[in-house]
Design a protein that fits this description.
The complex is a heterodimer.
Chain A: H1 2-25, H2 34-61, H3 74-86, H4 90-121, H5 123-137, H6 145-152, H7 156-180, H8 184-192, H9 197-234, H10 244-253, H11 257-289
Helix pairs in contact in A: 3-11, 4-5, 4-7, 4-9, 5-7, 6-7, 7-9, 8-9, 9-10, 9-11, 10-11
Chain B: H1 2-5, E1 16-27, E2 30-42, E3 47-51, H2 58-66, E4 73-78, E5 83-85, H3 97-107, H4 112-125, H5 141-154, E6 159-163, H6 171-188, E7 191-196, H7 199-205, E8 208-212, E9 219-224, H8 236-257
Parallel strand pairs in B: 3-7, 3-8, 5-6, 6-7
Antiparallel strand pairs in B: 1-2, 1-4, 8-9
Helix pairs in contact in B: 3-4, 3-5, 4-5, 7-8
Classes of the chains: A mainly alpha, B alpha/beta.
């Protein structure tokens, strides 16, 4: 009996020691207070924008540039925005381009993902088109606009074709590098648990490759947006409706520098906004849940 | 609790049987023999440690038993698919601790509604109740290895293979996990084949210590450890046997410096 008692006592002691070790070793993670986020993250870009606006206004005020067809004043550009808003066309411009861009991106996603899987998993396919796929990323997608116009004519399908050619390689390459970087240990662990073949791909390979895939999506979106703007600027036609690229081209034709500025600011703004609203939070969420998110 | 995970150990003859197993790898200089004619039985419920210096091929041997690789010659039979624990925890960072365990259950075909309960039972077994929703990076090294142990046990295999699972932990944590492993082994009745290069660890844990020679790996000698559990790594009999084994191990290593 005595030995059982000691055993139990030792057992209880062990549980206590273990609980203590666990408490000592576990790092407590806290959320950053809102004030700190504001000071570190939100305030600096606001300052940057204000500085740029001040410098711009200074160029006008001190007559460094006195030709409004070269450099309109910030208030001229502001008036342009106000007019477009009051006429109700501002949101139309944005929506025309954004809807095209996002729809094209979804097509690119649907094609790039299986393509990436194929390149990553089938040796022959990788040897055959892997290098081409990486090479395509460095080809400016504006190069596809002339052939796309000739093949498809001046309509929306031409726009989508250009977006696809720009974004599909990025998305496929992101998935390929994501899969290549899956630690072999995970694959071995999965195999001992019976995750082989399709089960292994679904439960181990794909989730492990997710961060690389997301990086590819982010780049794919940037490429989609750039390709689309190139297509809209080069191939503007009244049938296509006025997107942001067409707005820029219209401004050039009307020699209205404030309209050109309006278009450039909108293109930049939409590109950043989509990234900040969709891709960055997605990426942060995935990385943080895996403990890979490094606070900068 | 103990009976929940225990298997009908008496129904099988061997948890693992290795017969004349050899393994060689192709190298630029020709075939290199890594394991040479190894025969070894692990009885149901037995705790065996494989001990050896670098180059004895102990991890290769474990991979063969786990079915991750095939022997060049000889045969290996196990009672079902063995579970394997690595030196690194090998937990999947995209899943919580609980979901890692549930994945093992799912791949084994456990019904969805049972998984959560089983996972929580297993976490309780490794004394991590409340860690179900924790992410892997939120756990300490010792906690991760215990979750990995729970995940391995979730496979309900008759044989648990362990490849230096505590080598990367600090000494205090390792000591505590030795006690835990002994307790869990006694509670579940699982057979364990435990690879290590730490002589005291081998003696502290095992019923039988198998010493492998290096390059190529052969069974050099075996010891039956009949020191009663619970043992401590500081116990005099553990130290005494460790000393004896270390002498033989050093003799094996010395042979390699002589030519």
């Amino acid at each position: 009996m005595a030995s059982t008692d000691t055993k139990t006592a030792q057992g209880a002691g062990l549980a206590g020691v273990e609980a203590g070790l666990d408490a000592l070793d576990t790092a407590e993670s806290r959320r950053t207070p809102l004030r700190q986020t504001f000071v570190n993250k939100i305030f600096p870009p606001i300052v940057a924008v204000v500085v740029v606006l001040l410098a711009w206004q200074a160029l006008i005020t001190f007559n460094v540039v006195d030709d409004p067809t070269k450099l309109p004043s910030p208030s001229d550009v502001g008036a342009e925005f106000k007019d477009a808003w009051l006429q109700g066309t501002l949101l139309d411009y944005i929506w025309t381009s954004v809807s095209r861009g996002l729809l094209g991106f979804l097509f690119a996603l649907a094609i790039g993902t299986p393509l990436g899987l194929l390149v990553a998993r089938v040796k022959f396919v990788r040897a055959a088109i892997g290098p081409v796929l990486s090479g395509l990323q460095s080809l400016p997608s504006v190069a596809w606009v002339p052939p796309a116009v000739i093949w498809l004519g001046l309509d929306n399908s031409m726009m989508y074709a250009v977006i696809l050619l720009g974004a599909v390689p990025s998305i496929a390459n992101g998935l390929v590098s994501g899969i290549d970087q899956v630690p072999p240990l995970y694959l071995r662990a999965g195999r001992t648990m019976g995750a082989t073949g399709l089960k292994g791909a679904w439960h181990i390979v794909l989730p492990a490759a997710l961060p690389g895939y997301l990086a590819g999506l982010k780049q794919g979106w940037a490429f989609s947006w750039r390709s689309l703007m190139a297509a809209e600027i080069i191939a503007s036609s009244p049938d296509l409706g006025i997107g942001l690229g067409a707005l820029l081209e219209n401004g050039r034709n009307a020699s209205s520098m404030s309209m050109v500025f309006e278009a450039i600011i909108l293109i930049l703004f939409v590109g950043i906004a989509i990234d900040l609203l969709i891709f960055s939070p997605l990426e942060r969420w995935v990385l943080r849940s895996r403990g890979l998110f490094v606070k900068s | 609790m103990a009976t929940t995970f225990a298997k009908a150990a008496e129904s099988v003859e061997h948890a693992a049987r290795l017969e004349n197993v050899s393994k060689s790898f192709a190298t630029p200089g020709g075939q290199q023999l890594v394991l040479d004619d190894i025969s070894l039985d692990v009885a149901p419920g037995e705790f065996v440690t494989l001990l050896g210096a670098s180059g004895c091929g102990k991890s290769t041997l474990l991979n063969l038993v786990a079915g991750l690789d095939r022997p060049t010659a000889g045969s290996i039979t196990t009672d079902g698919r063995p579970a394997l624990m690595f030196q690194e925890h090998a937990l999947f960072p995209w899943l919580t601790a609980g979901k890692n365990i549930e994945l093992a259950l799912r791949l084994r075909g456990v019904a969805k509604q049972e998984r959560r309960g089983r996972a929580e039972q297993l976490l309780e077994l490794v004394r991590l109740q409340g860690a179900y929703g924790k992410r892997v990076h939120e756990l300490s090294g010792g906690m991760r290895q215990r979750v990995a142990m729970a995940r391995a046990l979730a496979q309900e295999s008759n044989l648990l293979l362990m490849d230096e699972p505590f080598a990367a932990l600090d000494a205090i944590t390792r000591d505590v996990l030795h006690d835990e492993l002994t307790r869990i082994w006694q509670e579940t009745g699982v057979s364990v084949l435990f690879v290590t290069h730490n002589v005291r660890e081998a003696v502290r844990l095992a019923q039988r210590v198998v010493l492998l020679s290096s390059r190529p790996g052969r069974v050099a000698r075996q010891w039956t450890v009949d020191i009663p559990q619970p043992r401590r790594i500081e116990d005099a009999p553990v130290a005494e046997l460790s000393l004896e084994i270390t002498e033989v191990l050093r003799g094996e290593i010395r042979r390699h410096g002589q030519h």
